[in-house]
Amino acid sequence: MRKDLKSLLAGKLEPWELKLLYKSYDIVGDIAVIRVPESLEQRDGIIAEAIMQAHKRVKAVWRQVSPVSGDFRLRELEWVAGERKTETVHKEHGCLFKVDLEKCYFSPRLSYERIRIAQHVQPGEVVVNMFAGVGCYSIVIARHSEAKKIYSIDVNPIAVRCMQENVKLNKVEGRVVPIQGDAKKVVEERLRKIADRIIMPLPERAYEYLDCAVQSLKQTGGWIHYYDFEHAKKNENPVEKIESKVSKKLQMLGVDFYVPFGRIVRVTGPNWYQVVLDIEVKGTYV
Ligand SMILES: C[S@@+](CC[C@H](N)C(=O)[O-])C[C@H]1O[C@@H](n2cnc3c(N)ncnc32)[C@H](O)[C@@H]1O
After folding, report:
1. Residues with beta carbon inside 6 Å of ligand 1?
2. In the chain, is it the N or the C terminus that has fewer CB atoms within a 10 Å radius of its CB?
């Protein structure tokens, strides 16, 4: 088990400073990404040193100074310690992902989701990953299932370039097919009615693309793995809230569906949750 930041820094920071510290940090390949409250910015060197001491493979530490934002879902990083590099290779489920943390989205926190989805994929399936980033879901699926093709769309050309390299690194050429462009346009132009399974890992905007996901499914139906963010008070269930919102839209689209599974992927803020729904579509008329 990885120690949290408060334990790593016990005895190195004042008790009041420890109280302000965010507990978690990410390690992607040999790079660590930390978040530090403004009042502790002077202490980021000590924090970085503690991480590098505890994790000998970490060669660079960067501080995240903005939330994830924009079409490409990027975050601003400021260098703290070690090498001044943002490019690395991350290992997950026996796969390798080359990623430039400054220019592409990547989160090691979705690791369980990637293998969970891969374990649902049946031999011979055609999968469309509408928001593929550097190809993590697609490559984990290719390596852990007998999927026939995994069309993998992303609007960020740098992410697609990394994805192309990752396809080679993981020897999944011909099965994972990187495509650069807007998912809606790509589906309309070349991926209508072909998929057994759709993955929608863009929680900020997946709702807008639901009709497009349905268009990409075979007319006999299939599965949609739908991600979204939801606010929920103590007495509310974020999964139920998302299911109700999505169900209304699918009913409007005339889709026959069933939601056998949903879960909270992670807590993203006070009363805010990232949620996934596995939606079984029985048949489509679009
Ligand atoms: C939250 S990231 C997820 C990336 C990847 N699936 C992963 O788990 O690492 C969402 C990705 O969607 C891409 N994106 C945003 N809008 C898009 C669109 N309209 N069409 C295709 N890709 C889009 C972004 O560039 C980003 O790489």
Report:
1. 71-73, 105-106, 110, 131-133, 136-137, 153-156, 159, 182-183, 201-202
2. N
The long-range contacts involving 66-74, CB below 8 angstroms and separated by at least 24 positions, are 68/105, 71/155, 71/156, 72/103, 72/104, 72/105, 72/155, 72/156, 72/159, 73/105, 73/133, 73/202, 73/204, 74/102, 74/103, 74/104, 74/105
Closest atom of ligand 1 to 110 CA is 8
Ligand 1 centroid–CA 10 distance in Å is 38
CA-proximal residue: ligand 1, atom 10 (nearest): 202
pTM of this prediction exceeds 0.90: yes
Residues of the chain within CATH 3.40.50.150 domain(s) are 103-283
At residue 47 the predicted structure's pLDDT band, cuts being 50, 70 and 90, is very high
Q: What is the pLDDT of residues 52-105, one digit of tens each?
A: 999 999 999 999 999 999 999 999 999 999 999 999 999 999 999 999 999 999
- 5-85 belongs to which homologous superfamily? Met-10+ protein-like domains (3.30.300.110)
Atom 4 in ligand 1: residue holding the nearest Cα: 133
